[in-house]
Amino acid sequence: MTSVPQAEPPPRGSPGRRLSTFLFRHDRIRLGGLLAGPLGWLVVIYLGSLFLLLLASLWDTEPFTSEVVHNWTLDNFKRIFEEPVYRDVAWRTVSMAVYVTIADAVLAFPVAYYMARVASPRTRNILVVAVLTPLWASYLVKAYVWRTMLGEEGIINWLLAPFGLELQGKSSLGLWLSFTYLWLPFMILPIYAGLERIPHSLLEASADLGGRSLRTFLRVTLPLVFPAVVAGSIFTFSLTLGDYILPTLIADEQFIGTVIYTDRGSNLPVAAAFAMVPIAVMTLYLFVAKRLGAFESL
Amino acid sequence: MKGRKARVARWAVFGLLVAALSVVAAGCGGGDEEGASTQIEGLGSTIEEIQANARDEGQTNLVIWGGYADKSWADQFTQETGCKVNTKDGAGSDDMVDLMATGAWDGVSASGDATLRLIAKGDVAPVNFDLTPNYADVFPGLKDQPYNTVDGVGYGVPHGRGPNFMVFRNDIVPAGTDSWAPIWDGSYPNKLSIYDSQNFIADAAVYLKATQPDLNITNPYELDDTQFQAAVDLLKQQRPNIGKYWDGVTYADQVTTFKSGETVVGTTWPYQVNLMAAEKPPLKVTAIKPKEGTTGWSDTWMIYSKAAHPNCMYLWMNYIISPEANAKVAEYFGEAPSNEKACALTADANHCATYHADDEAWWEDIYYWSTPQADCGDDRGEVCKTYEDWRAAWTEVKG
Amino acid sequence: MVESRLTRVLLRLGAGATLAFIYFPLFVIAIYAFNENISQTWPIEHYTTKWFGVAWRDENVRDALLLSVKAALGATAIALVLGTLAALAVSRYRFFGKETISFLVILPIALPGIITGLALQATILNVLDPIGISFSIWTIIIGHATFCIVVVYNNAVARSRRIGGSLQEASMDLGADAWQTFRFVTFPQLRTALLAAALLAFALSFDEVVVTIFTSGAQQTLPIWIFTNFGRPRELPIVNVVALFVIFASIIPVWIAQRIAGGGLATERPGKGAVAAAIDAEP
Predict the structure, then answer these.
(1) Which band of pLDDT confidence, cut at 50, 70 and 90, is reported for residue A295?
(2) CA distances (Å), B350 to each of B159, B176, B276, B356, in order?
(3) ipTM of the complex
(4) What is the DSSP letter of B340?
(5) What is the domain count for chain A?
(6) For the whole model, what pTM was predicted?
(7) What average pLDDT does chain C have?
(8) What is the per-residue pLDDT across B263-292, written as a single tens digit (0 to 9) for each?
(9) When comparing pLDDT for A253 and B2, which is higher?
(10) Residue A22 counted as domain residue
(11) d(Cα B62, Cα B316) in Å, to the nearest integer?
């Protein structure tokens, strides 16, 4: 009787292979390895930085040099809640963010709908490029050209003059126009994506069941595309909420961003405390947006 | 193993305690005060050494008032020294102090409301005037001033000085206007062009000094509660009439707004007046120092105490106050130069006379920008409003 | 077509009007690039082409352009790595806190730039500077990479969910180790999505200014150069020229991205995806 040949143990392989096998068997560790980099970066660098800002908001300043002194105090928060100017500024900023979001949604819809459902594939490609290209035009230059256009002898008044109209450009109205213009592409693209996702069969079914254009739009399309609108609104809202360049440039109005910016050195704790307001607002907004399904539409 | 574990644990706790305490100490403790020294790391000790080091450095980063480092004299500096000049226009003195605090800039052309704060923070180092030979020719009236010298130690080289003019469209505002009244009495609603900084409160105080003598304002930067409130109220009255604010970054916009008539009267620097005159065709504006007096500035070049390019900065400081360069910048910007010899080199022979470079009497009702402090400096004691109060008030005024 | 003829006509008009609205100011920028005067009134009195030559010769512009490109490349590279890692983790596994990851990843871009900028500057001044990392191209890259991660993440998650895990498992069953699987199976499947995301992350970083103001110190990326110079009378015309150049130059990468993503640049059938990359181009 011959002995059963011993099976050769499988070759141990290179360290890389051994590591790979180890990871294959221990997928918790594999997961940890995947997440370590990005999570580490975001938590340490980003959340850590936000934490430093929070700390700053609880400290004090030396009145002459404005240097941050590590005395714990709630005075900064007290100030932004008690002094009316901060409330006015916050209200002004949030209202503008709302108006801009609404304007952008309204303006974005026709383009997005046309691109998604009406245009031929070739036109669609061209339109996508056409909508994306202005994103590369510098934000600053666009802001500055709006200031120029809105001036008393700017191009807008020159165009309106034959009609006997005049735009008091350096005003909230001009600011609203500028913001709406700047953030428009950020609304067009998610809505486009959202509309494209709606299966054609659904709309056909609605039409078959007797729904006319408007009815189909209101009852079928709008609810389905709503999360995409919310997704786009995250950006129009957030970008308006924190902008610190346009309000000074165009309207000489104080917005949350401009107040934080001017106080950033001369009174960092107050600026940091005021910064907690948009953080709180946006965190809440993101929460609500998530519930409405916006994250899936991103 | 219990003993060993206990020992390890004890050491661990001790280590953590030490770490925590040192963090707290680092945060809470103030640095111990050393005498400020002109020594900066990397700075040469003789002029030859500085020039050699500068070639290695190759550049200097400056925070400036707009127009202070124009190519027409900065390029020559680069040719002579090998130092490229990178600049950023400060929106105002606050912005300049903030920028210097980041440590990314080698030097700054600081006005009087920034200088003392920078010195107190230790962000600027005293200057060794042996290494800036052109300092010898600076007007005596600019040396050893309270805004650039502390305890007998000089902290910078004077750049030049100028007033904040009142500017107006002489075809809209009566040509003979000689008072600040038009910007305070509401005659030109929505047409004012005003400097956007809390030290404009001092301008309100200057006006009140003349129009409400019972307030007893002597120094527009030393305002007690009553005086301050009066100034703030005046500013709040003015706020609805503002057509457009301007600052150290957006100053050139004044040319457009005055040209179109969007703003017809306001405050300005001589620089903008020059720009307006250079338009084709030149703007119909007049710039004056009104009879009530005005605020102004006397600027000093200061070097960051841990400058990355100290040698180039020293060369720049010496260059900008040299007669040739100082003459050029004084004419370009429209200010009184700091170097006596510059007066002979200006393209317009009357420049120094026009800008009162040597006429101390003219500067008596020009109140240089300075930082308000609690100590009133007179027998009222420590009741004056601080820089922080001014900052908060300005935010409130702008609304 | 489900929509009525009238609707389609109205839509065409509406779309045309919006597009005109989008492009009108860009034409104004183009026209002002030829303006001789310093003041910005309209109509323009004197036209000239001299600013093009001036801009071309300007050393600062070229340096700023180079810095912008380098920073964008660095930020895109880091974002690609971190975004893909996170995306693979989220699309393949179920674990506690998965929802928080997408929240955390989007936070840098959803919070206003001034807050991100101020917070990062606080870190640079108080943590990085003392250990020797002062303002440099690396601080710029760190800032940009942080909000570019979400661009890559969204694209990669969408694509990863679509391709599923079965091919990877098959590959492992056939004896490939993890690295080989990634190189030969996973990566090729993700490649076009990553490329589209990379192009858009690059665009995001290239045009970024609100955060970069805080993280750049004395250095100048192109947007910082624009920010520093648009108020200076002699430089404003050059700014207009530079802006014009950037607009035209950017048509090329956008067109390439469109070709690569095969018409699906703005959407990734059936679902999410590249649109996030496009919309996340925060100014």
Answers:
(1) confident
(2) 19, 23, 20, 10
(3) 0.86
(4) G
(5) 1
(6) 0.88
(7) 83
(8) 999 999 999 999 999 988 899 999 999 999
(9) A253
(10) no
(11) 10
C278 pLDDT more than 80: no
Could you tell me if residue A228 is inside a domain?
Answer: yes
Give domain limits for chain C.
58-279
C-beta neighbour count of A86 within 10 angstroms: 21
- CA pair distance A234, C110, nearest whole angstrom: 7
Q: Give chain A's mean pLDDT.
A: 87
Instruction: Give residue B80's pLDDT band: very low, low, confident or very high (50, 70, 90).
Output: very high
Neighbour tally for B60: CB within 10 Å:
31
Q: Is A110 on the interface with B (CB under 8 A)?
A: no
CATH 2.170.150.70 fits domain C58-279: no
- What is d(CA C220, CA C33) in angstroms, rounded to the nearest whole number? 22
CB contact under 8 A, B104 and C231: no
Q: Residue C273 above 50 pLDDT?
A: no
Residues C229-247 have pLDDT tens digits of: 988 887 888 888 888 888 8
Residues in chain A closer than 8 A to B120 (CB atoms): 64-65
Q: Is C63 an interface residue toward B (CB < 8 Å)?
A: no
Domains annotated on chain B, with CATH: 47-161+297-365 (3.40.190.10), 163-296+371-398 (3.40.190.10)
A172/B contact by beta carbon, under 8 A: no
**Using one digit for the tens of pLDDT, what is the confidence trace for B84-102?**
999 999 999 999 999 999 9
Please give the DSSP secondary-structure letter assigned to residue B217. -
**pLDDT recorded at residue C80:** 95
CA of A116, closest CA in chain B: separation in Å? 43
CATH number reported for the structural domain that contains residue A241 in this entry: 1.10.3720.10
Answer yes or no: is A31 within a domain: no
String of DSSP letters for chain C: --S-HHHHHHHHHHHHHHHHHHHHHHHHHHHHTTB-SSS--SS---B-SHHHHHHHH-HHHHHHHHHHHHHHHHHHHHHHHHHHHHHHHHHH---TTHHHHHHHHHHHHHS-HHHHHHHHHHHIIIIITTTT--SSHHHHHHHHHHHHHHHHHHHHHHHHHHH-SHHHHHHHHTT--HHHHIIIIIHHHHHHHHHHHHHHHHHHHHH--TTHHHH-TT---HHHHHHHHTTSTTTHHHHHHHHHHHHHHHHHHHHHHHHHTTT-SS-BTTBSSHHHHHHT---
Give the pLDDT band (50/70/90) at residue C263. very low
With beta carbons under 8 A apart, name residues in chain B contacting A262.
Answer: 94, 395
Structural domain containing residue A174 = 87-297
Q: Report the pLDDT value the prediction gives residue A12, as an integer from 0 to 100.
A: 60
Residue C1 has pLDDT above 90, yes or no: no
pLDDT at A261: 95
* Token reading at B332: 């370009």
CB contact C251 to B (< 8 Å)? no
In chain B, residues with a C-beta closer than 8 Å to the C-beta of C125 are 101-103
Residue A30 lies in a domain: no
Q: Token digits for A94?
A: 């949030």
A243 touches B: beta carbon within 8 Å: no
Structure confidence at residue C86 as a pLDDT band (50, 70, 90): very high
Residues whose CB is less than 8 angstroms from the CB of residue C47 and which lie 6 or more positions away in sequence, other chains included: C34, C35, C36
Q: Do C261 and C159 form a contact (C-beta atoms < 8 A)?
A: no
